What does this fold into?
Amino acid sequence: MVKSSMNRMLAGNGLFYPIIGFASFIAFLYLSFGDLWVNYSKEINLSFVERNGTQFIVDGKAFYINGWNSYWLMDHAADYTTRPRIGTMLQAGAKMGLTVCRTWAFNDGGYNALQISPGKFDEKVFRALDHVIAEARRNGIRLILSLVNNLQAYGGKTRYVKWAWEEGVALSSSNDSFFYDPSIRRYFKSYVKTVLTRRNIYTGIEYRDDPTIFAWELINEPRCMTDPSGDTLQDWIEEMSTFVKSIDRKHLLTVGLEGFYGPKSPKRTTSNPESWAADLGSDFVRNSVLSTVDFASVHVYPDHWFKHKNFEQMLKFAAKWMLSHIEDGDRELKKPVLFTEFGLSNDDDFEPAQRDRFLKMVLEVIYKSAKRNRSGAGSFFWQFLVEKMERFNDEYGIVPWESPSTYRLITEQSCKLAKVHGLLPTQIEHLKNFCAPGN
It folds into this structure.
């Protein structure tokens, strides 16, 4: 009765429709700019991650990483219906004691593209990346941001070559011309400069000045198969790593390698999965030894690389693969080595217990490295999702809290690393209880 009388009174005074219109306007503003009102001032203070020889250092202490991949963060932040997934995933990661997330800072052409065409950016998507970084900062999570894809997903080097071809300046239609075409190199440098100097609209901090960013990754899984000698890719890495450092000397930089040994490496026959791995145009040691590269990256996918080995054989290879690269970090590179992707497919005859055994092996190698102050500095599960993201799964993804045994292994690793080198301030709230003695 009171509500009905109030409506009649407002309508009678000619106020009802203006109020409805104003409310609709406010709703529009919230949907368009609502995250501007989110309180990002509660973020945890973070220091830049530094490197001292084979170790990462944070606030004077060695830093060994229990991390994960959620490549989809920027893409989902660009849509207000899926944006809440970013906070859910980052909060869940923090509660597991995880400290670094690896994600894409690129989407070249196509749906929700950050870079629509060379040098042209979608501000809405850039604000989505701003939101990812601000939300990570608020949850005490650092980010490895990858700058381009070797693969076609989210544009990648294929899109750059297509742009150059469409503009009539391409030297070749080969995807590998991404690495040697002068016009494409200029496209990529322009992109890199724009991203590194971007000022986050939510925090007011330029990306190159934000310690939330753990490191830049030049390219996800680079391969240049048209030049198996590796010279073309090496030249590109030298030029682009030098260019990044000319703009940003505060952040660490890695290449984004899978870890294969090239044709001139003595380990090409003893440590590579098979002979094809030496002919991809990359070389783990040669590509990583450059002074402008701060740490090396390796991926671990034994069931993807082998088609005729059983699980026990693949597990044995993966352990040997990891130890080989840690040895390289200690003896050849004298730099940290991060296993930035590892996973076991859930296709075919998948058994959850096997994935847990594989996960346990990877985490144990990192834990032993941390105990011995060696170069094996961390691992990143590929990949973590949240609920209702089935169509983004690629046979390796999991929702970690839906698998109690896997979740337990992950949190136990956070505790074990914390006991070796101490809890980070960002971990204290979440780990102080279940990492207590006797738990």
Summary: The chain has a mean pLDDT of 90. DSSP finds 14 helices and 13 strands in the chain. The first strand starts at residue 50 and ends at 52. The longest helix spans residues 311-333.
